[in-house]
Amino acid sequence: MIERLKGLFGRYVAAEPADRRRDPGTMIKASDELLDHTKRKRVIEGARDLQRNYAVARWAINKHLDYVSNFTFQANTPDAALNQRLEELMAWYERPLHCDVAARHTLKRMIRLAEARRLIDGDVFAVKLGDGRLQFVEGDRVITPGQLAREEQERWVHGVKTGPGGSMRSIAVHARNRRGGYTFEREVRAGNVLHLGYFDAFDQVRGVSPLVSAIADFQDVLEVKEYARAKAKVTQLFALAITREMADFDDEGDAEPYKVDFGKGPVKLELDPGDRAEFLESKHPSTEFQSFLTVCLQAALKSLDIPWSFYDEAYTNFFGSRAALNHYLLSVKHKRADLKEMLDRITLWRLSMWVARGVLQLPPGMTVTDLAWDWIPAGQPWWNPEQEIRADIMAINMGLRTRTEIRRERYGDDWKQVIVKLQEEEQWLKEHEVMVQQGLPAGWVLPTEPPEEEDNDDNSQEDDDGA
Fold it and tell me: Residue 376 in contact with residue 339, Cβ under 8 Å?
């Protein structure tokens, strides 16, 4: 026994092979090698199938997109007139005819779809065209061309031609054909390509979806749910069992059968002495089965960092839901950062093109690199406005937070715009003072002064007099 215990020290247990657990092996490969072309297609189609056919998986994807992929452009130069011009140009560009080569999607929808493709397929490519529009290429269409020399083929990784240090030199875009295969279309150099993907390693060239770790759980739950549904339907077709005593049978072993018809409403059975009638039923699905499915779904949603309280609103109380939301918002920051980087590169590309063509006139001494802007993610309004607004005001007064930070966090915009709008409203009220005195239009309510609080001593006196 002592010798056996000695063997447990001075080593990493996980490094020792054992029959009681799965042996991961000793061969280490990059994800690009683990997922060859066939396996990569299987993973992509598995995730796409879940989005098409499983409501919970589709809900989880949509919830992820709601929090990650919604941004608003805001110019931040010192020149107010220039800011307005930049925002006007970007608002014009965000329309489908101006940003999408297919003239189908707005820029906001394109970013949402790009994140969806990154989440489901692992990555997506945006090709910048000469006229300023974008063409997004889904990940399965980027494939290594065939009939390449051996030395040349080694430089390609799943449709991406690599250079020194693993940098992207170009991509090979293919078109899908009706037979389920692909036909080479063109090669696009890296300078015209924006690559958006999920990466877990430095030497990884193509992205891998975080859903890969949850596809099996989602598929198992979907299949088991279908089996449980079929079994539940069978149990709803209840059966009536009638038990007889041996004395009721005649010499030939037969007994007169009961004639029962439940199709015409309630039935009264006149049974012979000793006979019993009972309904066969099954409590299905069982509570243990439902608990098992819940655990599987909880594990699957963790691949997207989505808390269970998002799915089941009654799972926890207000404070538990709030804590889960805070943790989730922390997890989406790096995902938003990737999309902001893509949007910044698109913005710089378009602004440079407008300046070169004379559409955008910059102040003397200013270049495109001097322009400042921001893509603000969607805000999260207050859950408990009365308490949280008071806490935000205290944080501002104590110098712990800024108005800009709070306004962006809550509504995804800048507090300066709110001040401007308030000033415009006040100016409007002053200009229409006569109309306001005569009567406000329907739906308008003027702010009223709060009633003055009476002195506490007077109130006490009145209470005493009333008593």
Answer: no
Tell me, letter by letter, the H, E, C secondary structure of 221-271.
HHHHHHHHHHHHHHHHCCEEEEECCHHHCCCCCCCCCCCCCHHHCCCCCCC
State how far the Cα of 93 lies from the Cα of 133, in Å rounded to an integer: 9
SS3 state of residue 183: strand
Please report, for the chain, the start and end positions of each structural domain, with discontinuous segments joined by +: 31-70+96-208, 213-331, 335-435
Beta strands (DSSP E) in 30-167 are 71-75, 123-128, 134-138, 156-157, 160-162
pLDDT in tens, 430-447: 877 755 555 555 555 555
Plot region of 262 (φ>0 → left; ψ -120 to 50 → alpha; else → beta): alpha
Query: Distance between CA 40 and CA 402 in Å, rounded?
Result: 46
pLDDT tens readout for residues 262-273: 665 566 666 667
Q: What is the pTM of this model?
A: 0.77
In angstroms, rounded to a whole number, what is the distance separating the alpha carbons of residues 118 and 128? 18
Q: Which amino acid is at 119?
A: L
- Dihedrals phi, psi of 424, to nearest 5 degrees: -65, -40
